[in-house]
Amino acid sequence: MKDEQRPTLTTRQGHPIRDNQSMRTVGERGPATLENYQFIEKITHFDRERIPERVVHARGTGAHGFFEAYGKIGNDPATRYTKARVLTETGVQTPVFVRFSTVIGSKDSPETARDPRGFAVKFKTADGNWDLVGNNLKIFFIRDAIKFPDMIHAFKPDPVTNQQEAWRFYDFVANTPEALHMVTWVKSPWGIPANYREMEGSGVNTYKLVNDQGVAHLVKFHWEPKQGVRNLTSQQAAEIQAHDTGHATRDLYDAIKRGDCPEWELRVQIMADGDHPELDFDPLDDTKRWPEDKFPLLPVGRMVLNKNPDNVFAETEQSAFGTGVLVEGIDFSDDKMLQGRTLSYSDTQRYRLGANYLQLPVNAPHQDLMARTNQRDGQMAFYVDGDGENTHINYEPSLVGGYQEAPKPEHEYHQHVEGHLGRYATSRTADDYKQAGDRYRTFADWEREDLINNIGNDLKQCPEPIQLRMVWHFWHCDEDYGRRLAQFAGIDLDKAKALPPLPGQPAPHQARSASTYSDGRLEEGEPATSEEVASNK
């Protein structure tokens, strides 16, 4: 259908949507505003698309454990960067509950699926809960939360055939070049971790650490498994799936049961607060990695998982996480994905589990820290928050009792915000192609081979316009990348290269070619054999 013949996209109220790509923010870099009505209507409807299974991250397993801080961030006292006691105090074992998951598949889908893995950690700290909600990979497909429902719709099964279709996935990606970096990761062996124990984790979003002087630094959180990292090729995953669709859940449960408790080190990357114009990407862009040679991974503490749930439904299925659940010393950045997720996650929990989901034991604060709120009633309320005193007074302020505000800190963090309110796309987009090409060039030969096979087989199922645009994208990431895909899938490379840039987007700079560089790796991720995975080795 020609563009002039297409119907106009509207809201549920029939209002025409003139920009479906960007949330309303103060200036290009944010923050987002509460009156993002188009986004709020879109994301809250998306949160309610499934009953009662999670819309995303439906297939999962969990475990209890603890976190211990080293008291340092790199060689510096942790207090230099943050006043969060969970990161600064040594000798304290903070209880945690971790839920691992796949993203797109339903509750009974196989754990060998090529898919990002969820890695959500609930810290029950002395100052209340802190949820670090992320994935196994350090980046994501999109950088603005307004595109999340579209992305998931494209990746989920076709609403007519109920089949996952490669053309739908690549149709979205072909029009969203910021996703090329994540696609390069997911379609490589890194898209199928061997199990949850030998898997990295990342908060993905950019947060801020704030110290007791009110000074903030941008921060990225990452989990590094002490067990090492292993991934599967498509063939190895198919061999496992033939006899076990829940191998990763079994592996984690059996390891903890036999006392082989998995451990991760929490590491952070730190950057001065600001927009960093010297970088060719925005540090708030979730589709980009911070170069580790410039922003090294600094150790902060360790996490050990040592107890399986007593009941999967009561704990794992009813565990609820939210990116807005932070403690003092950890704060929000203007990361557009973080700001959108902060609304969406908690809204989803209230819809799925009820208004009082935080009264469930797995979600409630640590038993030594009583929640004292003036909230009452609602679906599934089974007690009144607090210590039973002054229950008549469910408001604040009061002259005769009830709760009072906590003392204000001596130094507070105040972010300066200035800009025109509007819808802004990120202007620093060179790394949409550069980082994807860099990643391709750092893969080992066997990883590149698996990547080309996976994407190439997908592209064979796509119509020609999508095939040509995807080859154009990958050729601009790396000449060898695009050439090999075109050859594998039988796509005319010259015809693809002749395409103009996407409307409204600048032409990307021509990238280097992997064929001119020696093989090298940035991370270790050796493939596991199917026998190793089956035997929990």
From TrEMBL:
Domain of life of the organism encoding this protein: Bacteria
Domain Catalase core: 10-404
Binding site for heme: Y345
SMART domains to which the protein is assigned, alphabetical: Catalase
Record keywords, A-Z: Heme, Hydrogen peroxide, Iron, Metal-binding, Oxidoreductase, Peroxidase
Cofactor(s) listed in the protein's UniProt record: heme
Signal peptide, first to last residue: none
Active site per database record: H57, N135
PROSITE patterns given in the database record: CATALASE_2 (PS00438), CATALASE_3 (PS51402)
Region (Disordered): 1-29, 497-537
A Pfam family annotated for this UniProt entry: Catalase-rel
E.C. numbers: 1.11.1.6
GO molecular function annotation: catalase activity; heme binding; metal ion binding
Name of protein: Catalase
Natural source organism: Massilia horti
Bias-annotated ranges (Polar residues): 7-24
GO cellular component, one term: cytoplasm
Job of this protein: Decomposes hydrogen peroxide into water and oxygen; serves to protect cells from the toxic effects of hydrogen peroxide.
Biological processes per GO annotation: hydrogen peroxide catabolic process; response to hydrogen peroxide
Family: Belongs to the catalase family.
Lineage: Bacteria, Pseudomonadati, Pseudomonadota, Betaproteobacteria, Burkholderiales
